[in-house]
């Protein structure tokens, strides 16, 4: 990764991402802030304006990573992804050197794999997703675009995750189940059966949903 990386979005996820980027020796140009954020340095990295500066900065930078977090909805990350692609940015794929990733894993553009993640063989991960700290993704899992697999969550073998879904911190998904697109799984839950699209789950799913 020769070009300095433009980060899009300040806040907590940005700070965690900076640690991964520094560990991987990736050069960071600076940070684009959201419209409700003050233009300030974050961990020593300069602000480079707001979202509406993205088109103008394309003449100087060509490589970007979305560093806005995703809780429940992927709306903001999807909007920024579309804006960056419209302006012909390349989206970096970032993998922490502190993670354990099978060589048979396929990871899409704009996706970040954080520290201490374990991903087993024949896993496919789509674009613009977050595989967050300490999560485990077992063999054969399929994760869509714009997903967030949150801190310490576990996907057992052959789980499929639809586009835009959110798996809360510490949740466990049983082998072979499907989580529908834009579904939201709360923190610390056991999910033993399929979840339909756009469904928000706040308690354990120990029997099929009706």
UniProtKB/TrEMBL annotation:
Binding site for acetyl-CoA: 148
Organism phylogeny: Bacteria, Pseudomonadati, Thermodesulfobacteriota, Desulfovibrionia, Desulfovibrionales
A matching Pfam family: Hexapep
Gene Ontology terms for molecular function: acyltransferase activity
Organism: Desulfobaculum bizertense DSM 18034
NCBIfam families referenced in this protein's UniProt entry, alphabetically: NeuD_NnaD (TIGR03570)
Keywords: Acyltransferase, Transferase
Transmembrane segments: none
Protein family (similarity comment): Belongs to the transferase hexapeptide repeat family.
InterPro entries assigned: AcTrfase_PglD-like, Hexapep, Trans_hexapeptide_repeat, Trimer_LpxA-like_sf
Binding, substrate: 69
Alphabetical list of Gene3D superfamilies matching this protein: 3.40.50.20, Hexapeptide repeat proteins
Name the record gives this protein: Sugar O-acyltransferase, sialic acid O-acetyltransferase NeuD family
């Amino acid at each position: 990764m020769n070009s300095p990386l433009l980060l899009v979005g300040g806040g907590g996820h940005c700070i965690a991402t900076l640690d991964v980027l520094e560990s991987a020796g990736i050069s960071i140009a600076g940070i684009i802030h959201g419209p409700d954020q003050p233009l300030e340095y974050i961990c020593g990295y300069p602000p480079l304006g707001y979202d509406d500066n993205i088109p103008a900065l394309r003449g100087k930078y060509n490589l970007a990573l979305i560093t806005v977090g995703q809780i429940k909805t992927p709306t903001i990350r999807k909007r920024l992804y579309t804006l960056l692609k419209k302006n012909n940015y390349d989206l970096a794929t970032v993998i922490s050197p502190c993670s354990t990733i099978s060589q048979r894993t396929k990871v899409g553009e704009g996706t970040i794999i954080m520290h201490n993640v374990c991903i087993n063989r024949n896993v496919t991960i789509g674009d613009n997703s977050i595989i967050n700290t300490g999560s485990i993704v077992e063999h054969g899992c399929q994760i869509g675009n714009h997903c967030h697999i949150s801190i310490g969550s576990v996907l057992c073998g052959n789980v499929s995750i639809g586009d835009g879904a959110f798996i809360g911190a510490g949740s466990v998904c049983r082998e072979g189940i499907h989580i529908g697109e834009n579904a939201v799984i709360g923190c610390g839950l056991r999910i033993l059966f399929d979840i339909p699209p756009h469904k928000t789950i706040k308690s354990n799913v120990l029997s099929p949903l009706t």
